[in-house]
Queue: 2 jobs
Job 1
Amino acid sequence: MRVLLIEDDRQMADYLRKALCEVGAVADHAADGREGLLQAASADYDVLIVDRMLPGLDGLAIVRTLRASGNGTPVLILSALGEVDDRVQGLRAGGDDYLVKPFAFSELHARLEALLRRGSGETPETRLRVADLELDLLKREASRAGRPIQLQPREFRLLEYLMRHAGQVVTRTMLLEQVWDYHFDPQTNVIDVHMSRLRGKVDRDFDTPLLHTVRGAGYMIREP
């Protein structure tokens, strides 16, 4: 996923670029509206993240200009303005989604994925598979090599998130936000405990492990 981030807050921009890199995206950055419009119009991006209040040219003007020129790249608008009228203005200007600050990165990432699915016409997944491990999202059932795996609800959510990001490093922050709904690190070993239990259920009695700890980074589930 190639992303253009148009954001004048340097701290926010650095945080988002680092987080996007962690999930395998390539993120370019523009620090003001005019620079962002030039980059968006001159290069191919999968999605644009546009702050609403920018120096030089505001975010809504960027989106209107792109749409008037026939540029249909999906746009996620970021803004501290969260009233209904503000969101309506953003969507009517041509934005595809609108996210109010402050926000959790896991939500931003999920919204980007949704925009990409919408643009490609993909249908929602009902089954996830990694090697011989399968997750039925409708029946909420898991199995490996045809053998049922009994999972607690939190374990199912954890495994689902890992499988949706198969082959990618999933950080502790991402897991805390997405699986536990924590937007801070409570400094507990809750993730380690659940990962240990999940590994015992998924990899026990199999020669090839699928769940891996990436030292200093997080966790990953991947094909052998």
Job 2
Amino acid sequence: MKSKVLQIAVLLSAVTLSLVLDGCTGAHADQADQAPPPANVVPAADATLFSVDHPEQFPLASATEHPTTSELVVTGSVTPDVSRNVPVVSLASGRVNAIHVRLGDTVQKGQLLMTIRSDDVSGGYSTYRMAVADEVLARTQYERAKDLYEHGAIALNDLQVAQDAEDKAKIAVETGAEHLRLLGNDPDKPVSMVDIFAPTSGVITDQQVTSGSLAQAYSTPYPFTISDLSSVWVVCDVYENDLASVRLGDSAEIRLNAYPDRMFRGKVSNIGSILDPTIRTAKVRMEVQNPGNMRLGMFVKATFHGQSREMHTIVPASAVLHMHDRDFVYVPAPDKKFRRVEVVGGDLLPDDVNLQEVKTGLKPGQQVVTNALVLDHVLAQ
């Protein structure tokens, strides 16, 4: 009896185990049916790769090497040469009665700039006229004393006193006259106005007075500043790491933003001894002859040529495509394709304008499409 019960228990255990295993297998099957299909990764299209039907229609050229000196390109601005700035100093204080020039005008030496109504001049004429009157009296007394002395009527001491008074009176007259001339007036023509003339020729680069304003004698700010702009300064900011490429006396090629096709030459006259602590740059000053179209405040680009020589990659100028302020070249690729490569273009060679430097992005020996513009036009269709 016990043997039969044991057999029935084993049989039930086997059935139960079988049902459990079948349930697990079914669950795994259901999960497999509900799982997403495997991802099919499609490679993205290369935006720099282009296919053409007849690549043989586009001739190729090999990039070559060209030795050249190292270059440093910096930016700056045109400033006046402070040694050529001449302040216009008013020697008399008073109210500005008239102004005959304006800021930015070109003036010649001796040209009338402004007229001042001055109490200094009025006081100077008063002092001068009193000195003249005193001198007339002193001269008359001296002549009378001289006559009396010759007739033995007075002592020699009295004559000497009269002569001393006459000499002092003459000095007072000469001093008063010289003071009026210093103010710019004629002692023989008493007026209360003072004319201020240009001490030199140049351009008025600063004006601190207007009609009706007050002008102070020997005081700053000066009424006008006249600058000789035949020679100007170009001041550039050079980064600390590039200062070794700049030396005193070096020449630089300067181009104005206003006239990019015209080149000027300058000479380095000073390298700043103090760095800007914020941007880590030093001021480099160059002296440049101004033909007349360099104006103060203009932005410039200066190129310094170093002493060391470097090898630059050279390609035909037509192989460089300038687009959206960037430079590109087309290089051949397998399966009738061309790849557009971004480069940093340089200057045209001075001895051959058909060749252009490529600073980065291309190595000597690589082939490029000779006429990038034609290929780009075909690809755009």
